[in-house]
Amino acid sequence: MNNRTYIIIESGYVSSVDFSQVLETSASTLRYNNDETKTFVKYEGSQPSFLNGKTTYNQAEILTELAKEEWVKELPE
Amino acid sequence: MNIIQRRRRYIGGLPTGYSNTGALALDGTNDFIQLPYNPQAAIRNSFTVGMWISGDSLNTGNGLGNLKYLFASYKTFNVWFAVAIDANGRIRIFFQNGGGAYLAAQTDTTPYSSGATGNSGSDWEHVCIVVTEGSSGSDLTTVKTYINGSEVASTATSSSLDSSEQSSIDLSGGFTTFGAYQHSAGSSNFIGQIPVNIDEMAMWTTALDANSIAVVGNQSDIKDLTEDSGNYDNSSDLEFYYKLNEGTGATAADFSGNGNTAALINSPSWISGASN
């Protein structure tokens, strides 16, 4: 497991994300849940201030979350 | 070789072994490696895809049907070539041309099941998929899977893809990735992420023979694939080759000479290179 921290956010919060402080490439590379109401970001080291107060996950914990039905996408046709 | 030739050959110092300094760790959540093009020309003929991998949960996590994708060249749901690991720890191969022709294969064994050597986290293993086009129009395409240079039994669960169908597959406008597959335009449109350490990703425009793969997949002597060595004589057949020794940055250089620099989406971690 890595030493990164993951935080699930509401989709409406994406506009508040400073992508210079997280490890996602840009807003266009975020992964959303199936109804696109949630996404997540990850960072190393100190928590960016705009993420203060939100629930954090380690890699194993976020993988468990992402294995839930709401995150597993169906094959596009 | 006479003495003068030998001196000329070694001018600048005796040859040394390959220093494989770097690799990438994908976390299985949202990171993957995106090639800048689709190797359609290679996939229309016999070809080989190889890479070193390690991990401790290769058969778990998320992904459609619990499939995690090591490599995919994808256009639509029925036009693609992909290599995946399933929940049982099998390697699965999918190859479909959109016209109903389909090749699906899986290993009989489960090398990446929970507790298996290949799923122990520390061991690097070489996975190599060899696709051989049929020799004429109606001859079927075949596929073989190798781990660490040795062929592992593959079962074709379905096979109707013939030479004429493979040679006309249309992947134009599609996407080619390691660590997930991208199903439509826009980098967020990806699924099947796998938590895996990956290194020395290569495609050759030919079906490597068993002797060559024994060199490429030798765990005790990881090779620089741009140099022929022993029974490996396919350095000139590289379609792309990512050594992943950069150690920093958001791109990976292509050492095939074809200049297909790959993009590292959502920050895979740079780690030490494959070694055993």
Secondary structure layout plus pairing:
The complex is a heterodimer of chains A (77) and B (276).
Chain A: E1 5-10, E2 38-43, E3 56-57, H1 59-66
Antiparallel strand pairs in A: 1-2, 1-3
Chain B: H1 3-9, E1 22-27, E2 32-34, H2 40-43, E3 47-54, E4 68-76, E5 79-85, E6 91-97, E7 102-107, E8 125-132, E9 142-147, E10 150-152, E11 154-159, H3 163-166, E12 175-178, E13 181-182, E14 190-191, E15 195-204, H4 210-216, E16 238-242, E17 251-252, E18 262-265, E19 269-272
Antiparallel strand pairs in B: 1-15, 1-19, 2-12, 2-18, 3-8, 3-15, 4-5, 4-12, 5-6, 6-7, 7-11, 8-9, 9-10, 13-14, 15-16, 17-18
Question: How is this structure best described in words?
Answer:
The complex is a heterodimer of chains A (77) and B (276). Chain A has 77 residues and is an alpha+beta fold. Chain A is 10% helix and 18% strand. Chain A has 1 helix and 3 strands. Chain A has one helix at residues 59-66, and strands at residues 5-10, 38-43, 56-57. Chain A has a 3-stranded antiparallel beta sheet with strand order 2-1-3. The longest helix of chain A has 8 residues, at 59-66. Chain A starts with a strand and ends in an 11-residue tail after the last helix. In chain A, 22% of the residues are buried. Chain B has 276 residues and is mainly β. Chain B has a single domain (22-272), classed as Jelly Rolls (Sandwich). Chain B has 4 helices and 19 strands. Chain B has helices spanning 3-9, 40-43, 163-166, 210-216; strands at residues 22-27, 32-34, 47-54, 68-76, 79-85, 91-97, 102-107, 125-132, 142-147, 150-152, 154-159, 175-178, 181-182, 190-191, 195-204, 238-242, 251-252, 262-265, 269-272. In chain B, the strands form 3 sheets. Chain B has a 9-stranded antiparallel beta sheet with strand order 11-7-6-5-4-12-2-18-17, with no helix packed on it. Chain B starts with a helix and ends with a strand.
